[in-house]
Amino acid sequence: MKNTYNLRSTAAKAITQVLEQGQSLSTVIPELQQKVSDKDKALLQELCFGVMRVLPQLQWFINKLMEKPLKGKQRIFHYLIMVGIYQLIYTRIPAHAALAETVNGAISLKRPQLKGLINGVLRQFQRQQQELVEQANNHISQHLHPKWLLERIQKAYPQNWQDIICANNQKPPMWLRVNQQHHTASEYLALLEKANIEAELDINHTSAIRLLNPCPVNSLPGFDKGWVTIQDRSAQGCAELLTPCNDESILDLCAAPGGKTTHILEIAPRSEVLAVDIDEQRIKRVKENLQRLNLHAAVKVGDGRLPHEWANNEQFDRILLDAPCSATGVIRRHPDIKWLRRNEDIDQLVMLQAEILDAIWPYLKKNGTLVYATCSILPQENSEQIKSFMKRHTDAALSETSTLENPGTQIIPEIAGGDGFFYVRLTKQ
Ligand SMILES: C[S@@+](CC[C@H](N)C(=O)[O-])C[C@H]1O[C@@H](n2cnc3c(N)ncnc32)[C@H](O)[C@@H]1O
C-alpha cells in the first residue's frame, strides 16, 4: 500500500512520542519537520503545541464520544482524533478539510480500516460541537494543568495564581534580542518597520523587542548575519545581571543551546567565555549559535557537579549557572511540560541544583560574581534554594537589591510580557 504523506498523522506521531514515550516536543518536532513541506511546518507546530495546551479538554470529548478508548498499537489514532477535534475548535481550517485530512491520516498510518471510525467520531463531535464545548466548560477545570502542579502554583502564589495559569494557557509572544554590536534596539525597530513587521521596544531591557505577531526568523532583517536572536525578554535579564566585562574569564554553566553564552559575548566580546553543558547533542547547538553570530567561546561537554573534570583548576571572574529546572515558568512555550513532569521530579531537581551550586562555588574567584538562574516559578528551586545555599556558604553575599528573607528576583509569566524566571546575583567575600 502507498504510504501517503499526511500532516495530521505526523502530528499524531509527535503527540504519541510525547505522551506515551516521555519525549519532549522540542526534540520530536525538529526531527519530524524535516519530512514536512515548508508551508506545513508551522501547522505541525500549531497542532502539536495546541493539543498539549488543551489536552484535558480533548480527552474529555473523546471519553464522551467513544465507548472504548483506543489502546496499544491503536493509541496513535486516539491522538489523531484529538488532532481532528483541535482543528474544529481552535483553527480556521475549514471543517470539511480538517475532517478529510484527519481521516486520511489513517491511510498514511497504514490502517485504512479505521477511517470509518475516525470519521464517525469527528462527525459526531461536529454535530454536537456547541453543546459538548459548553458541557466541557461546566464539567472540567478550565485551568488545563495537572492537579499537582496547580496545587503547587496556588500554594506559592495565593494572590495571583490565576494570572499565572491564564498566561500559561496562551500562545507565547515572540521576543527578539538585538545584537548591540550591530544596532541599538531603536535602530533595529526601524529596520523592522521598513520590513512591515510590527514590533515594540521594551523599557526594562536595552536589547529586547516584542513582535506583535510571530514571524519566520528568515524574514527578520539580518538574522543570518547575527543582527538579532530569538530570546524571551526574561531570559535576557540573566546576562544583563551578570554584567560581564571584556578581558574577564567567564563560565557559562548549563549553557546549551547557547542563548545566554552569545548574549554574554555580545555584551563583552573580548571576554574569555567557557560554555559547558552535560548534553553532547545540545552542545552542538551552542557551536552553531556562536558561528551564526560570529562569536568565539571555548565549548565543552561536562557535568556541572564535577568541575574538576573540565575546569583545569581555573577560577572564574564570573559564573552564570542557568540551572536545569522544572521549566514551570515557560509552560506557554513548552505546554508538553505539563504532562511530562511529575510531582516527584521537583525534589530531585532541587537536589541537582544544590549539588551543582556547591560544586561550582569554589571555582569562583574572590570578589567574583555568580548569577544563579532558572526558568521555574517554584520557590523550592529559587528563593528557597538560595536561602539554603547562603546557610551552607558563609562567604556568599547577596547583591544589594536582595534580602536574606527574600533573595533574588522572581518573575511570573505575563501575557504580553516575559516568561517566568528567577535570578539572583551572589558575590564571594
Ligand atoms: C535551562 S537549560 C540551559 C539554557 C541555556 N543556558 C541557554 O540560555 O540557551 C539547562 C541546561 O542544563 C543542562 N544540564 C542538565 N544537567 C546538567 C549537569 N549536571 N551539568 C551540566 N549541564 C546540565 C541541560 O543539558 C540543559 O541544556
From TrEMBL:
Its main location: cytoplasm. Residues 164-429 form the SAM-dependent MTase RsmB/NOP-type domain. Keywords: Cytoplasm, Methyltransferase, RNA-binding, rRNA processing, S-adenosyl-L-methionine, Transferase. GO terms for biological process: regulation of DNA-templated transcription; rRNA base methylation. It catalyses: cytidine(967) in 16S rRNA + S-adenosyl-L-methionine = 5-methylcytidine(967) in 16S rRNA + S-adenosyl-L-homocysteine + H(+). The active site is at 375 (nucleophile). One of its GO terms (cellular component) is cytosol. GO terms for molecular function: RNA binding; rRNA (cytosine-C5-)-methyltransferase activity. Its EC number is 2.1.1.176. PANTHER family: NOL1_NOP2_SUN FAMILY PROTEIN _ ANTITERMINATION NUSB DOMAIN-CONTAINING PROTEIN, NOP2 YEAST -RELATED NOL1/NOP2/FMU SUN DOMAIN-CONTAINING. Belongs to the class I-like SAM-binding methyltransferase superfamily. RsmB/NOP family. Specifically methylates the cytosine at position 967 (m5C967) of 16S rRNA. NCBIfam families: PRK10901.1 (NF008149), PRK14902.1 (NF011494), rsmB (TIGR00563). This is Ribosomal RNA small subunit methyltransferase B. The lineage of its organism: Bacteria, Pseudomonadati, Pseudomonadota, Gammaproteobacteria, Enterobacterales.
